């Protein structure tokens, strides 16, 4: 396993491993193209399937670097992204998330399923309790996360979650705003 240091803006993108709907694939590709245009690095789950594959392909097509982190057990299921500039094959899901975190300067969540939500909630909760200060951003052009966000607002209203936790999350509807929100000074 290599652990090349990632410097500068490196966006960890969490997104779906299932849908092949053109609308979602196009959104993922637009994000990859945007990352490349800014000369940033993509950090991904290291699969070629669905939106995960699309964002990585578009990033490379734009001439930028991709780092993929995939558990050995998912190499076949998610079709490991052998074209990644750096493909880190790990033993566990926890190691995957740990390495994705370590390589990332910001976290961007696109539409996804429960795996994507799991990844989002970990970086979101760890940000609001002060474990890191990297931007946590949701790009949601089609209200995919409306129900989840309404539920969290209800948690705030009922005292189960703080307004500060909601405020630590950036929710936007277009790619440029999402990348603007991810931009951090070079580390
Ligand atoms: P999904 O949103 O369910 O399509 O999943 C998106 C990605 O999240 C897939 O690559 C899953 O393998 C990944 N994933 C699901 N659960 C976890 C986890 N606990 N840690 C790391 N990655 C996960």
Automatic annotation (TrEMBL):
Hydrolase as UniProt keyword: yes
Record has Hydrolase as a keyword: yes
Enzyme Commission designation: 3.2.2.n1
Annotated Pfam families: Lysine_decarbox (PF03641)
Superkingdom of the organism of origin: Bacteria
Position of the signal peptide: none
PANTHER family: LOG FAMILY PROTEIN YJL055W
Protein name per its UniProtKB record: Cytokinin riboside 5'-monophosphate phosphoribohydrolase
Catalysed transformations (reactions): 9-ribosyl-trans-zeatin 5'-phosphate + H2O = trans-zeatin + D-ribose 5-phosphate; N(6)-(dimethylallyl)adenosine 5'-phosphate + H2O = N(6)-dimethylallyladenine + D-ribose 5-phosphate
Alphabetic keyword roster: Cytokinin biosynthesis, Hydrolase
